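dumping this here before i forget
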Amino acid sequence: MRRRSLPLSDVYRHLEPGPVVLLTTARAGRANVMAMSWHTMLEFEPPLVGCVVSNRNHSYAALVATKECVIAIPTAGIARQAIACGNVSGRRGDKFAAVGLTPMPATRVRAPLVAECYANFECRVVDTRMVRKYCFFVVEVVQAWIDPRVADPRTIHHRGPRHVHVRGRAAAAAVEGEVTVTPGHAAALPAHPPPPSWPSCRRTGR
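structure:
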């Protein structure tokens, strides 16, 4: 096989673990949302998820203090809003309003659901032993919501700075908080259905 040396800083782009998700928190009456792509499943049931949340992020302090969050999964239809969540800080204002997303009350945690996402998982932090060294939180999903209208979700995948793929093919590039659709792939970003009413959606969890 042909090969070339790969910079070690690019290794993560080839081991990207799953779709870009949105992680929401709530503290002192203020909700926040951030984009997260470094996460991994750790257990089937109860569902345990490992999440890397940098201590430089505004969400880190809220997650440490409240030990609650929601993991919401966006699709390509809201790629622009999802990527904006990774480029806008929530320290000084309402980030939901700034990026054009809708918070909705959860049932088991104070962090909000994201109405525009096809799946929302309410979570509680259950293990913080690797937080100080690696910013790695283990959370347990205590309530899961899914939009039954979305049978084949086209999830977003982060492949490094300015590179975003939709289920395996390059679809968009993030530039200073905006997304420019790569020529030839505009049709890959379909319109997303209107926000669901989560209590009427299919419910799973414990």
